[in-house]
Design brief:
This protein is α+β, with helices and mostly antiparallel strands. Among the domains are: 13-135; 267-396, Heat Shock Protein 90 (2-Layer Sandwich). 67% of the residues lie in helices and 9% in strands. The chain has helices at residues 13-31, 39-64, 69-89, 101-110, 113-135, 137-232, 238-261, 272-284, 303-324, 362-371; strands at 289-295, 328-335, 339-346, 375-380, 386-393. It has a five-stranded mixed β-sheet with strand order 1-2-3-5-4, covered by helices on one side.
Amino acid sequence: MTHPKPRRLLLHTTDWAFVVVAVAAYVSFFTAANVSFTGFEVLLLVVLGLLYTAIGTYGFENYVFAAPLGTKILYYVVQFPLVIGITVLSHFGGAFWLLLLPLVSHGAVLFSRTGVLVISALTTLLFGLLLGIPNGWQVGLTATLSFAPGVVFVVIFTQMALGESRARHQVEALAQDLAKAHETLAQYAVQAEELATAKERNRLAREIHDSLGHYLTAINVQLEAARTLLESDPSQALPPLERAQSLTKEGLHEVRRSVAALRASPLEGKPLAMVLAQLVEDLRATGIAATFDVHGEARALPPQLELALYRVTQEALTNVRKHSQARHTGVSLTYTAADVRLRVQDDGVGGDSDAPTGGFGLVGLRERVQLLGGELHCVTEPGKGFVLEIQIPFPA
């Protein structure tokens, strides 16, 4: 259901300007020298003045401004005779021409260029006629030529005000659109972060399932072997049991590592460089020589960006420990004026250069980096190690 547009009351700035001009004209009527009015003339002047003002304010705002062309023309068909009547009743005295200026301004608002020219010309001619009737055509012609520049000024001033008003409305509309776009972008950012979190949790869930299943299967095989040896040769049952115990410890370590990775914030408010250095130290504890370097001036990063750098480093070092057979690994974190870069390089067995982006969770890492507008590159060859580089834009 559509509701009718509410009528505007007499509160608009231009309405009050119209009223002030009309009052000024009437003050000039009643203070003009050598002019006296009868009671009936005063009453009729007041009535016509109120009608002229009401139509020019309330009527213009609510019924003429956005009306069809015929209604706009009717507006002048009514207002011009009212001005003539008021001027005649005022005995052609005072500044009756003030009543014509608002009509010129309204013409600049209501019509296109041709319409503005017509209304301006009619208003100027009307002024000349009203002044020329009691004073002669020479005075009327002179007054017309003198009044024309004032009409031009009113038209130009009104169009400038309209242009400023339109520009202000456009700026307000653009500001609203920008606010909506910002809100939408913020929602997308939250959704992207939630999606990245969900993908990370799914990856970790698969990793827990695969690694734990592997360890449990291996442990079960060792226990079955120990059970068989206990029946046939109890003295040989100890090695399988020791191997099962070792596998149990390794499996427990993997579960603890994966569960720790599921925590909401693995950084826990610590500096990114400190956390990455700890990951490198953990790798070094497994017997692989590892180094960590920071280049550039470190600066605060958004939580989702720091988490992405942490996860990429964590996954890369896990791959080094599990698959690369590397003797040395280097991790470097670089801050530039335009972005943040991470590089993980090892001297291990490498892989197939035709498919450097598949396997070992690299697809998930690439998706995480791309959600932040970054890029992930891998370079590898059999026997020549593996290089993983990411670049995420974040201007200083």
